[in-house]
Protein backbone atom coordinates (compact mmCIF):
# COMPACT_ATOMS: atom_id res chain seq x y z
CA UNK A 1 0.00 0.00 0.00
CA UNK A 2 1.20 3.57 -0.65
CA UNK A 3 2.77 5.61 2.12
CA UNK A 4 0.73 8.59 3.31
CA UNK A 5 1.80 12.07 4.39
CA UNK A 6 -0.85 14.38 5.84
CA UNK A 7 -0.39 18.13 5.41
CA UNK A 8 -2.27 20.48 7.75
CA UNK A 9 -1.71 24.23 7.35
CA UNK A 10 -2.52 25.97 10.62
CA UNK A 11 -2.83 29.61 11.68
CA UNK A 12 -4.00 30.04 15.29
CA UNK A 13 -6.27 26.99 15.26
CA UNK A 14 -4.90 25.18 18.30
CA UNK A 15 -8.23 23.92 19.69
CA UNK A 16 -9.52 22.66 16.35
CA UNK A 17 -6.13 21.24 15.40
CA UNK A 18 -6.23 18.87 18.36
CA UNK A 19 -9.56 17.53 17.09
CA UNK A 20 -8.22 17.09 13.56
CA UNK A 21 -5.13 15.18 14.68
CA UNK A 22 -7.06 12.67 16.76
CA UNK A 23 -7.94 10.29 13.90
CA UNK A 24 -4.81 10.66 11.77
CA UNK A 25 -2.59 8.20 13.61
CA UNK A 26 -2.64 5.71 10.73
CA UNK A 27 -0.69 8.11 8.51
CA UNK A 28 2.99 7.44 7.93
CA UNK A 29 3.76 11.13 8.41
CA UNK A 30 1.83 14.14 9.72
CA UNK A 31 3.12 17.59 8.86
CA UNK A 32 1.60 20.62 10.57
CA UNK A 33 2.63 23.90 8.99
CA UNK A 34 2.72 26.57 11.69
CA UNK A 35 1.76 29.57 9.58
CA UNK A 36 2.76 32.49 11.83
CA UNK A 37 0.63 31.25 14.74
CA UNK A 38 0.74 32.99 18.09
CA UNK A 39 -1.15 30.28 20.00
CA UNK A 40 -0.23 26.73 21.06
CA UNK A 41 -0.72 25.15 17.63
CA UNK A 42 2.90 23.98 17.29
CA UNK A 43 2.99 22.52 20.80
CA UNK A 44 -0.24 20.58 20.23
CA UNK A 45 1.07 19.25 16.92
CA UNK A 46 4.20 17.96 18.63
CA UNK A 47 2.09 16.29 21.33
CA UNK A 48 0.58 14.14 18.56
CA UNK A 49 3.96 13.31 17.08
CA UNK A 50 3.57 15.57 14.08
CA UNK A 51 6.45 17.22 12.28
CA UNK A 52 6.11 20.99 12.64
CA UNK A 53 7.23 23.14 9.73
CA UNK A 54 7.50 26.86 10.46
CA UNK A 55 6.32 29.15 7.68
CA UNK A 56 6.40 32.82 8.75
CA UNK A 57 5.04 34.03 5.39
CA UNK A 58 1.32 34.26 6.09
CA UNK A 59 -1.03 32.72 3.56
CA UNK A 60 -2.37 29.31 2.61
CA UNK A 61 -0.32 29.19 -0.60
CA UNK A 62 2.93 29.62 1.32
CA UNK A 63 1.82 27.19 4.03
CA UNK A 64 0.88 24.43 1.59
CA UNK A 65 4.03 24.91 -0.44
CA UNK A 66 6.16 24.55 2.70
CA UNK A 67 4.28 21.46 3.86
CA UNK A 68 4.40 19.73 0.49
CA UNK A 69 8.12 20.32 0.15
CA UNK A 70 8.63 18.34 3.36
CA UNK A 71 6.29 15.45 2.44
CA UNK A 72 8.02 12.09 2.09
CA UNK A 73 4.98 9.87 1.49
CA UNK A 74 3.94 8.66 -1.96
CA UNK A 75 0.52 10.23 -1.37
CA UNK A 76 -0.04 13.62 0.25
CA UNK A 77 -3.36 14.16 2.00
CA UNK A 78 -4.31 17.81 2.31
CA UNK A 79 -6.82 18.73 4.99
CA UNK A 80 -7.48 21.85 7.04
CA UNK A 81 -6.83 22.24 10.74
CA UNK A 82 -10.52 22.94 11.39
CA UNK A 83 -11.91 19.66 10.06
CA UNK A 84 -12.76 16.43 11.87
CA UNK A 85 -11.74 13.31 9.95
CA UNK A 86 -13.71 10.20 10.94
CA UNK A 87 -12.16 7.02 12.26
CA UNK A 88 -10.62 5.03 9.42
CA UNK A 89 -10.19 8.11 7.23
CA UNK A 90 -6.53 7.45 6.37
CA UNK A 91 -7.03 3.75 5.71
CA UNK A 92 -9.83 4.51 3.24
CA UNK A 93 -7.56 6.96 1.43
CA UNK A 94 -4.78 4.38 1.35
CA UNK A 95 -7.05 1.69 -0.12
CA UNK A 96 -8.46 4.09 -2.72
CA UNK A 97 -4.97 4.94 -3.95
CA UNK A 98 -3.93 1.30 -3.98
CA UNK A 99 -6.75 0.67 -6.49
CA UNK A 100 -6.28 3.88 -8.49
CA UNK A 101 -5.26 3.85 -12.14
CA UNK A 102 -1.90 5.36 -13.01
CA UNK A 103 -3.48 8.35 -14.76
CA UNK A 104 -5.21 9.43 -11.53
CA UNK A 105 -3.03 12.16 -10.04
CA UNK A 106 -5.38 13.46 -7.32
CA UNK A 107 -8.59 12.69 -5.47
CA UNK A 108 -11.08 15.16 -4.08
CA UNK A 109 -13.55 14.51 -1.29
CA UNK A 110 -16.61 15.76 0.54
CA UNK A 111 -17.42 17.48 3.81
CA UNK A 112 -20.42 18.19 6.00
CA UNK A 113 -20.68 21.37 8.05
CA UNK A 114 -20.84 20.70 11.77
CA UNK A 115 -24.23 21.39 13.40
CA UNK A 116 -25.75 22.71 10.16
CA UNK A 117 -28.51 21.31 7.94
CA UNK A 118 -27.21 18.98 5.25
CA UNK A 119 -28.66 21.20 2.52
CA UNK A 120 -26.13 23.92 3.38
CA UNK A 121 -23.24 21.55 2.71
CA UNK A 122 -24.90 20.29 -0.46
CA UNK A 123 -25.40 23.82 -1.73
CA UNK A 124 -21.94 25.08 -0.74
CA UNK A 125 -19.90 22.18 -2.08
CA UNK A 126 -22.27 21.39 -4.93
CA UNK A 127 -21.89 24.93 -6.23
CA UNK A 128 -18.11 24.69 -5.91
CA UNK A 129 -17.80 21.39 -7.72
CA UNK A 130 -20.20 22.36 -10.51
CA UNK A 131 -18.93 25.89 -11.20
CA UNK A 132 -15.20 25.27 -10.81
CA UNK A 133 -15.45 21.89 -12.50
CA UNK A 134 -17.00 23.60 -15.52
CA UNK A 135 -14.04 25.98 -15.70
CA UNK A 136 -11.52 23.14 -15.36
CA UNK A 137 -13.06 20.39 -17.43
CA UNK A 138 -12.65 17.91 -14.54
CA UNK A 139 -13.21 17.56 -10.79
CA UNK A 140 -11.57 20.38 -8.81
CA UNK A 141 -9.57 19.72 -5.68
CA UNK A 142 -11.34 20.61 -2.45
CA UNK A 143 -8.69 21.86 -0.07
CA UNK A 144 -10.35 20.64 3.13
CA UNK A 145 -10.32 17.04 1.91
CA UNK A 146 -8.14 15.98 -0.99
CA UNK A 147 -5.07 13.90 -1.76
CA UNK A 148 -2.53 13.71 -4.56
CA UNK A 149 0.55 11.92 -5.76
CA UNK A 150 3.50 13.71 -4.18
CA UNK A 151 5.65 13.28 -7.26
CA UNK A 152 2.93 14.84 -9.41
CA UNK A 153 2.86 17.90 -7.14
CA UNK A 154 6.61 18.25 -7.45
CA UNK A 155 6.30 18.21 -11.24
CA UNK A 156 3.55 20.85 -11.39
CA UNK A 157 4.32 22.84 -8.22
CA UNK A 158 2.50 26.21 -8.43
CA UNK A 159 4.12 29.52 -7.54
CA UNK A 160 2.97 30.39 -3.98
CA UNK A 161 3.62 34.13 -4.31
CA UNK A 162 0.03 35.05 -5.28
CA UNK A 163 -1.70 34.70 -1.92
CA UNK A 164 -5.09 35.88 -3.22
CA UNK A 165 -5.71 32.71 -5.21
CA UNK A 166 -7.60 29.76 -3.77
CA UNK A 167 -4.74 27.30 -3.47
CA UNK A 168 -6.87 24.23 -4.18
CA UNK A 169 -8.36 25.76 -7.33
CA UNK A 170 -4.96 27.06 -8.39
CA UNK A 171 -3.45 23.59 -8.07
CA UNK A 172 -6.41 22.08 -9.93
CA UNK A 173 -5.44 24.09 -13.00
CA UNK A 174 -2.10 22.24 -13.00
CA UNK A 175 -3.78 18.98 -14.00
CA UNK A 176 -2.39 18.19 -17.44
CA UNK A 177 -4.07 16.55 -20.45
CA UNK A 178 -4.27 12.81 -19.90
CA UNK A 179 -4.30 13.18 -16.12
CA UNK A 180 -7.38 12.62 -13.97
CA UNK A 181 -8.83 13.85 -10.70
CA UNK A 182 -11.12 11.29 -9.10
CA UNK A 183 -14.01 12.08 -6.77
CA UNK A 184 -13.65 9.99 -3.62
CA UNK A 185 -16.18 11.23 -1.06
CA UNK A 186 -14.68 9.90 2.24
CA UNK A 187 -16.44 12.81 4.00
CA UNK A 188 -15.07 14.88 6.85
CA UNK A 189 -16.85 17.20 9.29
CA UNK A 190 -16.07 20.88 8.68
CA UNK A 191 -16.20 23.87 10.99
CA UNK A 192 -19.08 26.08 9.73
CA UNK A 193 -17.18 29.36 9.82
CA UNK A 194 -16.97 29.33 6.02
CA UNK A 195 -20.69 30.12 6.10
CA UNK A 196 -20.39 32.92 8.64
CA UNK A 197 -18.97 35.72 6.52
CA UNK A 198 -16.49 36.52 3.82
CA UNK A 199 -18.56 35.02 1.00
CA UNK A 200 -17.94 38.04 -1.22
CA UNK A 201 -14.18 37.73 -0.70
CA UNK A 202 -14.31 34.01 -1.49
CA UNK A 203 -16.08 34.71 -4.78
CA UNK A 204 -13.56 37.45 -5.60
CA UNK A 205 -10.67 35.09 -4.91
CA UNK A 206 -12.33 32.39 -6.98
CA UNK A 207 -12.73 34.64 -10.02
CA UNK A 208 -9.19 35.90 -9.54
CA UNK A 209 -7.89 32.32 -9.55
CA UNK A 210 -9.78 31.49 -12.73
CA UNK A 211 -8.67 34.66 -14.51
CA UNK A 212 -5.02 34.14 -13.57
CA UNK A 213 -5.04 30.61 -14.93
CA UNK A 214 -7.14 31.32 -18.02
CA UNK A 215 -4.45 33.80 -19.08
CA UNK A 216 -2.19 30.82 -19.68
CA UNK A 217 -4.86 28.19 -20.35
CA UNK A 218 -7.84 29.85 -22.07
CA UNK A 219 -11.03 27.80 -21.82
CA UNK A 220 -11.29 27.28 -25.58
CA UNK A 221 -7.95 25.47 -25.37
CA UNK A 222 -8.13 23.83 -21.96
CA UNK A 223 -11.63 22.36 -22.09
CA UNK A 224 -11.40 20.52 -25.44
CA UNK A 225 -8.12 18.95 -24.31
CA UNK A 226 -9.79 17.52 -21.20
CA UNK A 227 -13.27 16.67 -22.46
CA UNK A 228 -12.18 14.34 -25.26
From TrEMBL:
InterPro entries with a match to the protein in the record: Glyco_trans_2-like (IPR001173), Nucleotide-diphossugar_trans (IPR029044)
A Gene Ontology cellular-component term: plasma membrane
Residue stretches making up the Glycosyltransferase 2-like domain: 5-116
Gene3D superfamilies registered for this protein in UniProt: Spore Coat Polysaccharide Biosynthesis Protein SpsA, Chain A (3.90.550.10)
Gene designation per UniProt: arnC
Main location: membrane
Biological source species: Corynebacterium gerontici
Localization in the cell: Cell membrane
A family per Pfam: Glycos_transf_2
Functional note: Catalyzes the glycosylation of 4,4'-diaponeurosporenoate, i.e. the esterification of glucose at the C1'' position with the carboxyl group of 4,4'-diaponeurosporenic acid, to form glycosyl-4,4'-diaponeurosporenoate. This is a step in the biosynthesis of staphyloxanthin, an orange pigment present in most staphylococci strains.
Keyword set includes Chloroplast: no
Keyword Cell membrane assigned: yes
Pathway in which the depicted protein is active: Carotenoid biosynthesis; staphyloxanthin biosynthesis; staphyloxanthin from farnesyl diphosphate: step 4/5
Protein keywords: Cell membrane, Glycosyltransferase, Membrane, Transferase
GO molecular function: glycosyltransferase activity
Family statement: Belongs to the glycosyltransferase 2 family. CrtQ subfamily.
Protein name, as recorded: 4,4'-diaponeurosporenoate glycosyltransferase
Amino acid sequence: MPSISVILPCHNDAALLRRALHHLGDADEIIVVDNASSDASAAIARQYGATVVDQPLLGITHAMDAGMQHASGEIAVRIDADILPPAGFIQRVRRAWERADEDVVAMSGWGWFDHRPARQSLLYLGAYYCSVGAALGHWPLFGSNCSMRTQWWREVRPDPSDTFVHDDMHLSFRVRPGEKVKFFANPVVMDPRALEGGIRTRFARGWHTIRVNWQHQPPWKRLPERLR
